[in-house]
Design a protein that fits this description.
mainly alpha; Arp2/3 complex 21 kDa subunit ARPC3; about 0% strand; ECF transporter S component; transmembrane helix; transmembrane transporter activity; transmembrane; membrane
Length: about 260
């Protein structure tokens, strides 16, 4: 429910240009993205689903991703190594954790690499969705040790997220191509005509570029996913406390029932 509310708010931000009213202002976009992350972070912390150790893990992942992005700022095509840890963290720790981790890692890495701009609020939400998608895919795992099929499933998620991330980020980029024949954004058009123009824009400008990101995600998960997932799962187990009722001892008298 918490993640669904955040997703609805983020989707409204990305889908706003399809209403024909133009793109939302920078202030509105920044308010929505930061509000989504802070609200989810506050709820997770107050409900004790996210404690100081979880916050420390998010900070560590953000630091590592910042170093990776600093070493490879431009990437290869659309590929960037920062998505590996976001995917693994979401798969191992859950969808809500994955969203907060992805958005935070993107924000911190953007500050380190001077990647702050009007695109940043959109990138934060889109990267958060990558972590959330991995978390939803890993929900069936139920605490067991990651196996080969988990790595393969996460690689498939990485491919899908590679294209999906590029597509939603292109919505922001596309609004600057106003008036270009057949593909440019034109405020005032109906939703169907606007969607058709965006589809042509994406196929013409971004499909191959996003293919590098999708392939890179899958390759990194296949090569490094098993040890990274294993480490995250062990960390989760070490700090996860489960309280269960103790079994009744043989010969013990049954508890008195209220009269």
């Amino acid at each position: 429910m918490r993640l669904a509310a955040v997703t609805v708010a983020g989707a409204a931000l990305f889908l706003w240009p399809f209403t024909g009213l133009g793109g939302p202002g920078l202030a509105a976009a920044a308010a929505v993205s930061s509000g989504c992350v802070l609200a989810l972070l506050a709820v997770e912390t107050m409900s004790r689903r996210l404690d100081s150790r979880g916050l420390a893990l998010i900070a560590a992942i953000a630091a590592v991703d910042s170093a990776l992005r600093l070493a490879l700022v431009s990437g290869i095509g659309g590929f960037s190594p920062i998505f590996l840890l976001v995917l693994c963290a979401g798969y191992a720790m859950g969808a809500e954790f994955g969203f907060v981790c992805g958005a935070t890692a993107l924000l911190v890495s953007a500050l380190v690499t001077a990647g702050v701009g009007p695109w940043l609020p959109y990138e934060m939400i889109a990267t958060g969705w990558v972590g959330a998608a991995a978390g939803l895919a890993g929900a069936h795992r139920r605490g067991r040790t990651p196996q080969r099929r988990d790595v393969l499933l996460l690689a498939v998620v990485g491919v899908a997220c590679g294209f999906a991330y590029g597509a939603v980020m292109d919505i922001w980029d596309w609004t600057f191509f106003r008036g270009a024949a057949d593909v440019g954004y034109l405020p005032g058009l109906g939703a169907a005509a606007t969607a058709s123009r965006f589809g042509h824009f994406y196929l013409a400008t971004s499909l191959v570029y996003d293919g590098f990101r999708a392939a890179g995600n899958a390759l990194l998960v296949l090569l490094l996913g098993a040890p990274v997932l294993g480490a995250l799962v062990r960390l989760q187990r070490r700090h996860h406390l489960v309280i269960e009722d103790s079994p009744a001892l043989p010969g013990a008298a049954p508890a008195a029932q209220p009269g």
